[in-house]
């Protein structure tokens, strides 16, 4: 290609990209998960999507093995590479995937290297090198119309044969998709990702939809405090309790017993392994669905949600670690911490022992399921009282950080606020003396 033609082409691409970015600033992104129906492919094309992931792994490991100069000068048009097998022997590989897939592998490795360099600069420690990958489960499709394009609504033939299908580079036949009803009619398609899971191959499609100004206002609700637990996963200050734990199914236990009896590396061993992976995926999806439902019920219409920074990772090491493992506490905690209306209380705050009047009952034990205050006589379920205490602590933190009304004078503070402030001052540890003088 001539230099002038190349410069003109790059200029046109840059102008088009700026227009697209400007258009997307007035829209909001939406990512939908669509499952590919590979049954519509013939025998020759059925293994192609899976083979793309294998070739991406070959290329990724080959690029990791190169030195910095060879990696910097690598040409994405290269089709012959040499990689190592499981025994460490060099094997010649021929790549058949599109060049865009090879470019996505190179760009992802460059991002990983930049992240390692940023971490090394921040911590001042060596992080080592990138490790070889045993699997490659995600392929970026970063150019709509080239790496992928979708026939949607009225873009098919008169019989509707190609409607709700996706065209992927390297595969001639269009592939049907499940879940297209999630996409609004006025959506604009953008980049996507091919993701391999035990249940099949999915397309994570990014769409941009207009921002609707006239949305119905959600009904305002009272502020709420939530308490994490093991026996009861979530307890709110309103007395509601959520159980978001899914135990291992009997089918999974049976498959694991069968897997232990089979010969390692045999065909039946691999078949059972895939069935176990699919069963784990189903259980994870159920836990995620329960966590999302609980999050929606707790957050919708709230202006203040108070929660405690529980050490869920430490709970895994306790004698009830299996109960924590079967729950979705970590997922729910991460989603709540990302919400701007959530106030996180210190991990060591005695929410179970402190009464709403401010008195700390040191005599309460783990076996006491009902809280009784010896000072004011307040009696309440242990977990519900802890959630109410966290709500009071969250309201205090919000009032102290609000510029309009800071409740620092003692005459504006309740008995609980005074006790909470006293606990915060006692919990502060003096700084360790510096070794440098």
From TrEMBL:
Q: Which residues form the Cas12f1-like TNB domain?
A: 339-389
- The record places domain Probable transposase IS891/IS1136/IS1341 at 215-305
> Which GO molecular function entries does the Swiss-Prot or TrEMBL record give?
DNA binding
**What's a Pfam family in this record?**
OrfB_IS605
Could you tell me the Gene Ontology terms of the biological process aspect for this record?
DNA recombination; transposition
**Could you tell me the keywords of this UniProt record?**
DNA recombination, DNA-binding, Transposition
- What family is reported? In the C-terminal section; belongs to the transposase 35 family.
Could you identify this protein by its name?
Answer: Transposase
């Amino acid at each position: 290609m001539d230099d002038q033609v190349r410069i003109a082409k790059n200029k046109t691409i840059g102008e088009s990209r700026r227009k697209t970015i400007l258009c997307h600033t007035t829209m909001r992104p939406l990512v939908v998960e669509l499952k590919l129906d590979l049954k519509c492919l013939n025998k020759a094309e059925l293994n192609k999507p899976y083979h793309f992931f294998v070739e991406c792994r070959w290329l990724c490991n080959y690029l990791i093995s190169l030195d910095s100069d060879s990696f910097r000068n690598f040409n994405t048009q290269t089709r012959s590479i040499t990689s190592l097998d499981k025994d460490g022997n060099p094997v010649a590989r021929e790549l058949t995937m599109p060049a865009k897939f090879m470019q996505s592998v190179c760009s992802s490795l460059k991002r990983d290297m930049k992240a390692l360099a940023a971490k090394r600069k921040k911590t001042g420690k060596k992080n080592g090198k990138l490790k070889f990958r045993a699997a490659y489960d995600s392929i970026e499709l970063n150019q709509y119309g080239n790496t992928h394009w979708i026939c949607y609504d009225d873009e098919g033939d008169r019989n509707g044969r190609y409607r709700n299908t996706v065209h992927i580079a390297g595969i001639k036949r269009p592939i049907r998709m499940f879940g297209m009803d999630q996409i609004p009619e006025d959506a604009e398609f953008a980049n996507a990702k091919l993701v391999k899971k035990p249940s099949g191959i999915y397309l994570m499609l990014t769409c941009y939809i207009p921002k609707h100004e006239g949305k119905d206002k959600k009904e305002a609700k009272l502020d709420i405090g939530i308490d994490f637990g093991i026996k009861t996963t979530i307890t709110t200050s309103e007395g509601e309790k959520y159980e978001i734990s899914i135990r291992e199914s009997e089918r999974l236990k049976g498959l694991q017993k069968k897997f232990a009896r089979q010969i390692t590396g045999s065909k039946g061993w691999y078949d059972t392994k895939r069935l176990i992976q699919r069963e784990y995926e189903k259980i994870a999806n159920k836990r995620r669905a329960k966590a999302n439902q609980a999050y929606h019920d707790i957050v919708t219409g709230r202006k203040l949600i108070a929660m405690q920074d529980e050490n869920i990772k430490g709970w895994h090491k306790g004698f009830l670690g299996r109960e924590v493992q079967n729950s979705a506490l970590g997922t729910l905690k991460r989603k709540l911490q990302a919400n701007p209306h959530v106030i996180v209380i210190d991990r060591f705050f005695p929410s179970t022992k402190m009464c709403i009047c401010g008195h700390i009952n040191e005599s309460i034990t783990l076996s006491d399921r009902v809280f009784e205050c010896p000072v004011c006589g307040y009696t309440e379920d242990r977990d519900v009282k802890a959630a109410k205490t966290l709500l009071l602590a969250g309201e205090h933190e919000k009032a102290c950080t609000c510029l309009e009304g800071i409740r620092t004078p003692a005459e504006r503070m309740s008995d609980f606020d005074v006790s909470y402030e006293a606990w915060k001052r006692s919990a502060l540890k003096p700084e360790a003396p510096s070794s440098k003088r």
